[in-house]
Amino acid sequence: MQRKRHTSRERLFVTGGVLLLLLAAGVIVSGRIINRRAAQMSDRIVTQISESHCLLLQNEVDRTEGILTAATRFLQRHDTPSGPELQTLATTLLDVDSKAREIWFSREGDAKRRRCLRNGTLLMEPTAAICPAKEDSVVSTIVSEEGTPVWVLACTVRDPAGKRCLCGIDYPLPELYTYMSEQNPHSRSSAILLNPEGVIVYHPDSLKLGQRIGSEHGTGGKNGDFTGSEAKAFRRVLATGQSVIMETFSDYLGMEEQRIYYPIQLAGQRWVAGIGIPRLVIEQEIDDFHLYTILTAAVSVLLFATLLVAAQRRWRREYALRRLSERESAQLQLQQVIDQIDPHFLFNSLNSLYALIRCNPEQAREFTLTLSRVYRRVLERRKQILASLTEEIDFTWQYHTLQQIRFGENLTLTTTIDTSLRRHRIPAMSLQTLVENAVKHNRVSTRTPLHIDIRTEGDSLVIENNRTPHENENTESLGVGLERIRSIYRFYTDRNLEITIDPMTFRCSLPLLPPEK
Q: Is residue 316 part of a domain?
């Protein structure tokens, strides 16, 4: 019989080993196929990311053009609009385009222009020098206001009276980049936007905003973000309207990236957007596939091996756990019976009763009734392992009453219990055990009174008392008395009681178990 069992086990290992090798081979082959596919898809990933970013830029540019068109049409249809009318128009348009700072209007013959800010303020300032050469044409320029580059879009139209009117929108470039970054916070690409003259309107490096391609301090030198080939790519896109893809090095990011230049239309003019995707992002995509393949293989092999070993050892583990549970359960029941009937406690109680009968018969009768209630509770709960906090506190006060008859005011007990935790449970008679240990292991007299404090702290019950130990204290007996409580906690939770002893204080923390359902 034993020989046949070993033969089956060997067959199980051989079969499992063969399946394990087949699984590993399948994972390796699949991983290589996936890696080749990942390399082929990298160009598609770059195209999808860049097109998505470019579409976002085009939508924002279209919104800007729409705002300017709406403002100019209003001027074409209204003769000498009032300040409140212009303010209402500007407020409505600025609500549509959150990246614009203000809209301004000026009229032929007026010495001042009207500035409508986002907060609704209407200001009067000298007329701007910006003026498109042709009517209904849009001019784009970068001006500096207090050191901040501002992108200005302006358009000239004629009102019903035949007078020329100028309308413009101001976009502070640092705020423009912040706004665009918030629209796509998880983007793995960066973008730049160039007007037809090659002036940078949008760039992650704020120092380059408003500068022109090829300028000394901008993007044309060795400190810039453009090379000669990139300037050629810009001019090619501007001339042909077709996208250009190239490999370049970004000084701003300090790494190589793949950049695609796209044409963008604004007010009938062709602008150029450059979308850069760091090579690190592309390589990370491929590396992720490698990592996923390795992790899949490792997890699969480990899982299969674990299941194979678990099938062999499961019955041994279950048998060992069952035997351990039976043995600890028997030990718990035996220890609980031993703790419930403490000969020393019974002897001391009877001695106290005998002394009270002689000196104070009335108090002796009260003591007898209390003692009977205490032992009735002990007998009723002899098979109970867990008890509610309310039951344990009540029983501890009854036990304290007996001990106080013996020690008088030299023994005091205080309890501070959170009412919301009264239904939580602790091992039965655990408080009585701790109070009894406090009385047993300390001198209780007029000179050395004993104070025991029981309180809740978070999800724990703390029992604390001052220490006045006997000269020949047996510290091992303290551990034996608490072993029953530790055993119960090991059955019900991963937490256990915590004991802290210093020269002045003994502290024990009991975890509170959830209430009984």
A: no
Determine the Cα–Cα distance for residues 122 and 81; give it in Å rounded to an integer: 14
Domain end position, chosen among 281, 304, 319: 281
CATH number, domain containing residue 399: 3.30.565.10
Residue 179's pLDDT is what?
83
Q: Which residues, 6 or more positions from 422, have their beta carbon under 8 angstroms from its beta carbon?
A: 388, 389, 390
- Count CB neighbours of 209 within 10 A: 24
pLDDT range class, residue 416, cuts 50, 70, 90 = very high
Token pair recorded at residue 261? 């230049």
Mean pLDDT of the chain, nearest integer: 79
Residues 345 and 277 in one domain: no
CA dihedral 294→298→301→306, nearest 10 degrees, is: -170
With respect to residue 60, please indicate whether it lies within any of the assigned structural domains: yes
Q: Is the pLDDT of residue 389 over 90?
A: yes
Of 234, 260, 281, which one is at a domain's C-terminal end?
281
Q: Name the band, by pLDDT with cuts 50, 70 and 90, for residue 218.
A: very low
Give 412's strand partners.
451
Measure Cα distances from 25 to 60, 228, 307 in Å: 51, 50, 19
Query: What are the residues facing 455 on neighbouring strands?
Result: 416, 462
Does the reported pTM lie above 0.85? no
Listed in sequence order, the residues at least 6 apart from 514 whose beta carbon sits closer than 8 Å to its beta carbon are 424, 425
Q: What is the pLDDT of residue 6?
A: 46
411-421 b/e (C-beta count within 10 Å ≥ 16 → b): bebebeeeeeb
212/106 same-domain check: yes
Side-chain half-sphere exposure of 296, counting CA atoms within 13 A: 17
**Which residue range is the domain that position 349 belongs to?**
341-511
Distance (Å, whole) CA 63 – CA 97:
7
- The residues facing 206 across adjacent strands are none
- Please name the residue ranges forming H helices in 141-209: 173-183
Of residues 479, 478, 450, the one with CA closest to residue 465:
450
Q: Would you put residue 429 in left (φ > 0), alpha (ψ -120 to 50) or beta?
A: left
Q: Is residue 207 domain-resident?
A: yes
Q: Give the tens place of pLDDT for each residue, 301-335.
A: 777 777 767 766 776 777 677 767 765 664 565 45
Q: Which residue type occupies 224?
A: G
The amino acid that residue 269 corresponds to is Q
Total domain count, the chain: 2
> Could you count the other beta carbons within 10 Å of the beta carbon of residue 270?
15
Whole-angstrom distance, CA of residue 457 vs CA of residue 29: 58
Q: pLDDT tens-digit profile of 257-285?
A: 888 899 988 877 888 998 888 877 666 66
Query: pLDDT category, 1, cuts 50, 70, 90?
Result: very low
- The verdict on 233 and 357 lying in the same domain is no
> What CATH number does the domain containing 121 carry?
3.30.450.20
On whether the CB atoms of residues 148 and 68 are closer than 8 A, the answer is no
